[in-house]
Amino acid sequence: MLVNLLVAVGMLVVVPAGLRLLADPAAEVARRFWPVGAIAGAVSLWLPRGPVATALATIYAIGAALLCAYAVSRPIRPRREWPAEAAVLTALISPAIAASALIAERAGYHLFGFELGVLVLTVAHFHFAGFAAALIAGLQTRIAPGRAADAAALTVPAGTLLVFVGYFTAEAVELAGALVLTAGMWTVGWLIWRYSRTSVPDRLTATLLGVSAAVLAVSMVLAVSWALGEATGLPHPSLAWMAATHGVANALGFAVCGMVGWRRAGAYLAPGRNVR
């Protein structure tokens, strides 16, 4: 039930907020359809597995497919924008991966042999580590241009990809992905914290961004501890405990607070635009 709530937050709150941060008229079709797909996907989570739940999950997948179509239609960016573009494309494609896992889980199908519970966690992972983290990492290239922001915009997608590949190959690859993703997320957190302390006159906005940054310092340690335990057999948190700690912290503390904070700060990822 907790994971379902987190996934619903990702569908109904985080992705729409992130799409507004893109501020790109070319994304309008995907942005307008998204609430339809998000509501259908969220409802599907609470229905018994079967044809109705699968059909609603498929409507969600249509919304994810529109994001992929928008991603493909984006023009080639100047070289200086490639790190940000890598992060944005990762964010836009992530809901499609989540949708594939959701359809399979709602149909009761063990996609690639994964347990149904793991498929639900995959849906959550690609809303927060995939969409929210990548988008905010890309946003940092607008907020604090420089090598650190570019590195974060590249390592967050790279870490997410490695974790995904690790699902199919080896736990050591998943651990490597967790380490790369953690390095990127800590860099993102440091950039957000610095910005919130020095450049935000509004106390509420600064608090939201500060919480978003501070959460990463702890939540990503949990991610590494879990991946390390899986790879080595050392004691590590259970998936249920990870959902209640790492999952809740990243969903509410990092993603929701971050999206609201950046919206209040007037930060956008549209080419040529920066914080107002």
UniProtKB/TrEMBL annotation:
<dbReference type="Pfam" id="PF14158">
    <property type="entry name" value="YndJ"/>
</dbReference>
<keyword id="KW-1133">Transmembrane helix</keyword>
<feature type="transmembrane region" description="Helical">
    <location>
        <begin position="116"/>
        <end position="139"/>
    </location>
</feature>
<protein>
    <recommendedName>
        <fullName>YndJ-like protein</fullName>
    </recommendedName>
</protein>
<feature type="transmembrane region" description="Helical">
    <location>
        <begin position="52"/>
        <end position="72"/>
    </location>
</feature>
<feature type="transmembrane region" description="Helical">
    <location>
        <begin position="151"/>
        <end position="169"/>
    </location>
</feature>
<feature type="transmembrane region" description="Helical">
    <location>
        <begin position="84"/>
        <end position="104"/>
    </location>
</feature>
<feature type="transmembrane region" description="Helical">
    <location>
        <begin position="205"/>
        <end position="228"/>
    </location>
</feature>
<feature type="transmembrane region" description="Helical">
    <location>
        <begin position="240"/>
        <end position="262"/>
    </location>
</feature>
<keyword id="KW-0812">Transmembrane</keyword>
<feature type="transmembrane region" description="Helical">
    <location>
        <begin position="175"/>
        <end position="193"/>
    </location>
</feature>
<keyword id="KW-0472">Membrane</keyword>
<dbReference type="InterPro" id="IPR025450">
    <property type="entry name" value="YndJ-like"/>
</dbReference>
